[in-house]
Amino acid sequence: xxxxxxxxxxxxxxxxxxxxxxxxxxxxxxxxxxxxxxxxxxxxxxxxxxxxxxxxxxxxxxxxxxxxxxxxxxxxxxxxxxxxxxxxxxxxxxxxxxxxxxxxxxxxxxxxxxxxxxxxxxxxxxxxxxxxxxxxxxxxxxxxxxxxxxxxxxxxxxxxxxxxxxxxxxxxxxxxxxxxxxxxxxxxxxxxxxxxxxxxxxxxxxxxxxxxxxxxxxxxxxxxxxxxxxxxxxxxxxxxxxxxxxxxxxxxxxxxxxxxxxxxxxxxxxxxxxxxxxxxxxxxxxxxxxxxxxxxxxxxxxxxxxxxxxxxxxxxxxxxxxxxxxxx
Length: 328
Known about the structure:
11 helices, alpha/beta, Rossmann fold, 3-stranded mixed beta sheet, 12 strands
C-alpha cells in the first residue's frame, strides 16, 4: 500500500511517517531540496523533491499512490511575508487536493489545526462544532489554516474528495528540530528566558499520540468529518511548573498583563524585519493569548479509539530530546 506524505521532515510529519511505516505503509514523501532531513534519517522511504507551490513538481509522484497524508504547512506565528504563507498553506493545499482527485487517491487525511475552531466559552471546552469565522482568526497563520480547511471541505462536498480532517492541538515531544512555537516555550523555560508569564492556556499533547491519531483517522474516520487530536488542558503557569519538575529553573512567579508586553513585542517585530530572525514574542501571539486554547478530544476518543498520554510524560520526552540534541 503506497502512501504519499507531505511534511515528513517536520515535527508532526516525521512522527506520522514512523507510525505509518510500523502499520505497513510504503511511503513516498515530498520534501523541498533544501529541507533539513534529519528527521528522515534511517527511515525506509522514497523521497521526492518538490514544492507545494509548484504542483508540476509532484503530480507525477502521486501516480500509483493509494493514500495521501497532507501534513506540510508553514507553521509560524509571525512572518514578514503573508503572501508566501498563504501560497503554501492555502493555494498549495487546494492544488494538492485537486491533484489527488486526478490521481484517484482513495483516502486523504488532511492535517488542519485547532486554530481553525472557535474558542472555549462559559466553561465549556471547544470541540469540532465550535464555529468560527475568518474574522475570528488572529494572525496570518490562523487565517491561512482556516482558509485551507475551507478549501478541503469545499472539495469534499463538491468534488467528492475522500478526505478526513484532523485538528491537532499543541504537540510536544522528540524531533522538534525548529523548534515549533510550543517547543520554544520549553527551550526558553529551561534556559531561563521566561522570567514571567501571562495568563493563558494550551492543550498539550505528545506528538506521537497525534501521529497515531492520524492513522486512527485513516482507519476509522468518516469522510468529511473532522477530529480534534488533543491531550490535556493546562494553564501556562502549570506548563512552566511541569517543566521545572524535569530540570528547569523554578517556575516564574511573576504574572504580567498582556498589555504590558505589547511594546516589547512591537520592538521585537521591528528587529525581526531587519534581521530576518523570527521574534521571540509577536503581537499576534499576544493577541492569541487572550483566549485559553482549551479543547475536547472526546469525539476522536469515541469514534476513533484515540487516547493521549498524560501531559507530564509529553513534557518529559520533549525535554529529554532537547537536552540530548544540545538545545540547552
